[in-house]
Amino acid sequence: MNTALTFGTKRTFKAKQIINDFLTYVRKPLYIAEDATMSKTEKFQYLFKVLLCKLALLPILIPIIYFTKQLTGAKSADMPQTWGYYVAIVMIVPLIEELIFRGILHYSRWIIAFAFSFVLMTLTKYTGAFDRIGWHIGFTYLACFLSIPIIYLITKPLDSIFEALWAKNFKYIFHLVAVGFGLAHLTNYSGISNYLFALPLVTSQIISGYVLGFVRMKLGFGYGVALHSAWNFIASFGMLVVLLAKFF
Residue 6 pLDDT more than 50? Predict the structure, then answer.
């Protein structure tokens, strides 16, 4: 019996324990349901400690990013200093990225369908495949969107097979998603002279990929979104200060 829940006492989570939980999970990712023994309060306490652990890495990560920029000539992409863009960074982008990168960690036909549509849309954008056959951009995106219910329906008979494969190959999926999340953020930079040497630029995002994946599996999808949003809020705090200065 969980005495912490029975007698109303709360468990405390030390940074050392959380780091050990994380490293243990990363060494052997398991296809598990979220921890049902933790109350919402405990989950948010755990989440806050995870955030503090991530912040503790900044003195190491910031110099890595600085010197990699010097080495590769990379420049951070310019961000519009607007309230709309700020809200997108803090609230909309975390939700979308978690749906794409962490939603997929638990098998779901909807997630598979959305992921397929996203990949199709990305490929059409960067390969210009539909441009070469004369498709208007609107029809291109409409075709990608319409692929979602189609993929959802045609994969129904294969549900049990796909989920079994998901569980069996989960460790590969987990690592691929975490690293892929980091590499996707290379698009935040321009002027990169050598992409191999530029990989340290996304060290923070690769670590985040693993941390957010761990949080999603242990605590639940919503807590991953909350952590992602909190991190983006901290990262874009300078923009908030500029916007508030303009406002007042």
Answer: no
